[in-house]
Automatic annotation (TrEMBL):
Annotated source species: Thermopolyspora flexuosa
Species classification: Bacteria, Bacillati, Actinomycetota, Actinomycetes, Streptosporangiales
Domain of life from the UniProt record: Bacteria
Keyword Membrane: yes
InterPro entries linked: DUF6343
Key words of the record: Membrane, Transmembrane, Transmembrane helix
Protein name per the record: Uncharacterized protein
Transmembrane residue ranges: 21-45, 51-73
Length: 100
């Protein structure tokens, strides 16, 4: 995809996204949001108050966002691994000489 090729700002050349930290946060948020959504649905069914339905929808939305984020992160981590492996293979093939 070449995210670092056409830089227009002053960001560092080696800037990296904290993918693992995002994965940990989304991995925690997903089960917590699912448990919260179930709890709020049960409360809404028992008490009939609209506020519990609203809470359940919000918790469900958080769970969906966390799940999508985990899928995106899995794809990005796989791409980063494959790019690193391709770079290592090219370095071995070229005898460690970098071509620019």
């Amino acid at each position: 995809m070449g995210f670092g090729r056409n830089r227009s700002g002053t960001e560092p050349v080696t800037a990296r996204s904290p993918l693992r930290a995002r994965a940990v946060l989304s991995g925690i948020a997903l089960p917590v949001a699912l448990i919260a959504a179930v709890y709020f649905v049960v409360r809404a069914l028992r008490e009939g108050d609209a506020v519990w339905w609203a809470e359940a929808i919000i918790a469900g939305a958080v769970a969906v966002i966390a799940a999508i984020d985990l899928l995106v992160l899995r794809r990005r981590m796989r791409e980063a691994r494959e790019a690193a492996a391709a770079g290592d293979a090219a370095a071995r093939r070229d005898g460690g000489v970098s071509r620019m």
